[in-house]
Amino acid sequence: MSAPTSEYAIMGSLGADPALVGDVGPSGQPTVKNFLRALIGPIVFLVLFLAVWEYFHRDGMRRFFDKPGFLVPSPTTVFDQSFLNSAVRGQMIEGLAWTTFTALVGLAISVVLGITLAVVMAQARWLERSMYPYLVAAQALPVLAVVPLIGSVFGGGIGARIFVCVMISIFPIVTNTLFGLTSADVSQHELFTLHGATRSTRLRKLQFPAAMPSIFIGFRISAGLSVIGAIVGEQFFRAGQKPGIGVVIEQFRQKARFPQVYGGLLVAALLGIAVFLAFGALRKLAIGRWYDESS
Prior knowledge:
Layout: H1 3-13, H2 18-21, H3 32-65, H4 75-83, H5 86-122, H6 125-140, H7 143-154, H8 158-181, H9 186-194, H10 199-236, H11 245-254, H12 258-287
Helix pairs in contact: 4-12, 5-6, 5-8, 5-10, 5-11, 5-12, 6-8, 7-8, 8-10, 10-11, 10-12, 11-12
C-alpha cells in the first residue's frame, strides 16, 4: 500500500472530514498535513481555556468581580473531586444516564413530528404559510412562561422534561427538512411530471434524497438542543426518582460543592458534543458516499 493511501486510511479511521480539514489529496481525502492543522487549533484553544480557568481561580475572580477564588475551583480540583471520587462519579453516571435517555426520547419525538410537519407543509405553499407562523411563535415562546402549564399537564416528572426537549429541538428539524424538500431542481420535477409520477413517488424518489443533507443538518442542531432541553427540564421539574445531570448539578450547587458543579457542567457539555458527533457520523454513513459538500 502506498504512503498516501495509508495516511488517508488513518485519517478515515479517526473520522476526518474533508470539509472540516481543508485541502484534500488526489483521491479527495484530507492530507495528513491539514489533518494535523485541524487538530492543533482545538488543542491550542483547550490549553488557553485551561490557563484562563486557572487564572480566574487564582486571581481573576477577586480582581474582576471582587469574589473569592473558591467559586471557580482549579481544573485539577474539579477533576479530582468530581471524577476520581467514586461516590460523586456514581451520581454523575446515574444522572448522565437519565439525561441521555430524556434527550434521546425527546429528540426521537422531535424527528418524527418535525419531518411529518415538514412533509405536510411541503405539499402546498398555502399549507406552509398557514402553519409556519405558529411554529415560529412556539419557538420564540420562553420555556419559563409555560412551566406552570407543562407541570399541570405532565405532572412535573420525566414526561415534562421530554416535552421541554421537544419544544426546544423540533424547530430546526422542521425548517431544515422543509428547505430540503422544496430545494429539488425544477427540471427534475418536470421530468417526474413527464413520467406521470405520483405525489408519493415524487416525495420518496426525488424530494427526500435531495433533502437528506439539510435534514441531517437539522438533526445535528436539534441533537445539541435536545440535551439542553433535557437539562433545562430537569432544573424546572425535579419530581420523581430520576435525578438527571441537571438535578445533580443543582444539588451540588445548593451544598456549595463548586468543584462538583463544574464537573457536572463538563459532563453535560461532553454529552452534547457526543450526541452532535454521533449524528455527524450517521450523516456520513447515510449520505457521505454521494453528497459532495464542496459542490
